[in-house]
């Protein structure tokens, strides 16, 4: 079955041009002007619209067991939501419990992923260390995982120390896999939490107060320095504040391959919500790092414009109010996480492109192409070109939409963007060459998603390996001194 997207303007990260897009067998067969529709082809009208590579969200937590509960979004509802928002692939985090085998955990997540209605892939988290973990990292790489995540926060649960960071980053370097960090100083967070509780601060405001920007910046800086020492690129997830962004900028200025990922939520929502009288409202926004002030939002936008930050994600991690209420008397027990997978593209377009901060091409870069390049998916994903997967979004830049929990496709009972009216929405989403979202309706099939393998040694790693070899330390060769006896 073939499909012709007719009459639109193709927008890639590098340029825009008028062209039709012909898809068959799940891939793009041709991109060019006035293409003929093969007999029986479905024709999608893209008149007045942009045709862009489907979004890729590299940071989600479907069905994640966390903080005594399990995220309520599963791979079916999560991937359905993302398609309704124009995103056609996600990369989720497989998180082994401390002492659990990495490959057993990957088996578990792989099983859960079979429910997905669109393409997905996995990062694996390093939550403990042994020779066996090092060996299993190689087995994960053989199974198409080219990125390993490290939590520098969540003391007593997922957090790892500097020794593990050093050992795991070194292993990543040797395997050609990208280390990722959740950068917050978990010891400092823990101590601040105890102080605040002792002062009688038990509500969601304590969450924001216990995770100030310098706690994030310190960890980002530390992870960067360890990555530099080891000689490996680094990706800093959910960069939320100016000081962490500054650390990334400094590193890049000195020639390091460090990537920063702001979230759609951190770009537009601010910390004032944690001080709301309505506990449910404040708790529903609890995530780590917390939302920040306008000054930090500006820094994140500046980074996307200038290129010091590369990817906008969501960290979609869904906990309903009943789950959030586990922390009714103690903010440290509120499960951390918010949603946004359906809203990401709309929010970034509305506040990025409509305001003149980003060009449409830069929008494609930060929502799809850069991610595909960093995670070695390009040009299978992240570009509208012959040979690429037929994952597309037909974007109507004029259409308006008001974001409402009642109308979203997530299982979440709140929407952090509730009531926001955006201009610019996905008219049609195409996944694997099939129309899956059109006229406000989904047409998806459980199990249609594919587990996309991402090979190790992305181009940046090949360069880094050559550089490491050239700059490798060598012993000083000294002549053996013969001692003269007097
Ligand atoms: N971000 C958050 O609050 N929850 C999900 C887990 C994580 O990424 O830290
Ligand atoms: Zn995190
Ligand atoms: Zn996360």
Protein architecture, described:
The protein has helices at 75-84, 102-113, 131-142, 162-175, 186-198, 205-209, 213-230, 242-253, 264-268, 279-284, 294-306, 321-324, 344-353, 360-374, 459-470; strands at 2-11, 16-24, 27-32, 42-45, 50-53, 55-60, 65-66, 69-70, 87-94, 119-125, 147-151, 178-182, 234-236, 258-260, 392-402, 421-431, 434-438, 441-442. The strands form three sheets. Strands 1, 2, 3, 4, 5, 15, 16, 17 and 18 form a nine-stranded mixed β-sheet that branches. Helix 2 (102-113) links the parallel strand 9 and strand 10 (119-125). The protein has 486 residues and is α/β, with parallel strands linked by helices. The mean pLDDT is 97. Helix 7 (213-230) packs parallel to helix 8. The protein has two domains: 2-52 and 387-396 and 407-442, Urease, subunit C, domain 1; 54-385 and 453-465, Alpha-Beta Barrel (TIM Barrel), CATH 3.20.20. Bound molecules: N-(aminocarbonyl)-beta-alanine and zinc ion (2 copies). N-(aminocarbonyl)-beta-alanine (URP) binds at residues 61, 182, 287-288, 315, 317, 336-337.
Give a quick rundown of the structure.
One of its GO terms (biological process) is pyrimidine-containing compound metabolic process. The protein is an alpha/beta fold and 486 residues long.
């Amino acid at each position: 079955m073939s499909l012709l997207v007719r009459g639109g303007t193709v927008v890639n990260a590098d340029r825009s041009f008028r062209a039709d897009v012909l898809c068959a067998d799940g891939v793009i067969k041709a991109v060019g002007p006035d293409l003929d529709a093969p007999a029986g082809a479905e024709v999608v009208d893209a008149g007045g619209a942009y045709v862009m590579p489907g979004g890729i969200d590299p940071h989600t937590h479907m069905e994640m067991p966390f903080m005594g509960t399990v995220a309520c979004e599963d791979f079916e509802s999560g991937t359905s939501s993302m398609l309704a928002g124009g995103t056609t692939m996600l990369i989720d985090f497989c998180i082994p419990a401390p002492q659990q085998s990495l490959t057993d955990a990957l088996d578990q997540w792989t099983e859960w992923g079979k429910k997905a209605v669109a393409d997905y892939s996995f990062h694996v988290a390093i939550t403990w260390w042994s020779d066996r973990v090092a060996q299993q990292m190689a087995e994960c790489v053989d199974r198409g995982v080219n990125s390993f995540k490290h939590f520098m926060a969540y003391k007593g649960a997922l957090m790892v120390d500097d020794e593990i960071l050093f050992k795991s980053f070194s292993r990543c370097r040797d395997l050609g896999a990208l280390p990722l960090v959740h950068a917050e100083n978990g010891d400092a967070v823990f101590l601040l939490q105890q102080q605040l509780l002792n002062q009688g601060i038990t509500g969601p405001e304590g969450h924001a107060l216990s995770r100030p920007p310098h706690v994030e910046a310190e960890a980002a800086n530390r992870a960067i320095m360890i990555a530099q020492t080891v000689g490996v690129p680094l990706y800093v997830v959910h960069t939320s504040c100016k000081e962490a962004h500054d650390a990334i900028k400094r590193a890049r200025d000195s020639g390091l391959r460090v990537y920063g990922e702001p979230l759609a939520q951190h770009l537009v929502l601010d910390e004032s919500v944690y001080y709301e009288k309505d506990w449910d409202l404040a708790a529903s926004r609890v995530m780590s790092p917390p939302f920040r002030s306008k000054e930090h939002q500006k820094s994140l936008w500046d980074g996307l414009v200038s290129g010091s930050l590369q990817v906008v994600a969501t960290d979609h991690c869904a906990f309903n109010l009943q789950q959030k209420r586990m922390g009714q008397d103690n903010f440290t027990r509120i499960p951390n996480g918010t949603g946004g997978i359906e809203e990401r593209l709309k929010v970034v377009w509305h506040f990025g492109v409509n305001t003149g901060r980003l060009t449409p091409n830069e929008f494609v870069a930060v929502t799809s192409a850069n991610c595909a390049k960093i995670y070695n998916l390009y040009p299978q994903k992240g570009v509208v070109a012959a040979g690429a997967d037929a994952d597309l979004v037909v974007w109507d830049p004029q259409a308006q939409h008001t974001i409402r929990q009642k109308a979203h496709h997530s299982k979440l009972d709140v929407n952090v963007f509730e009531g926001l009216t955006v201009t610019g929405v996905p008219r049609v989403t195409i996944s694997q060459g099939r129309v899956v979202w059109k006229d406000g309706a989904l047409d998806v099939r459980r199990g249609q998603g594919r587990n996309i393998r991402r090979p190790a040694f992305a181009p940046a790693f090949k360069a880094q390996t050559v550089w490491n070899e050239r700059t490798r330390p060598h012993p000083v060769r000294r002549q053996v001194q013969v001692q003269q006896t007097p």
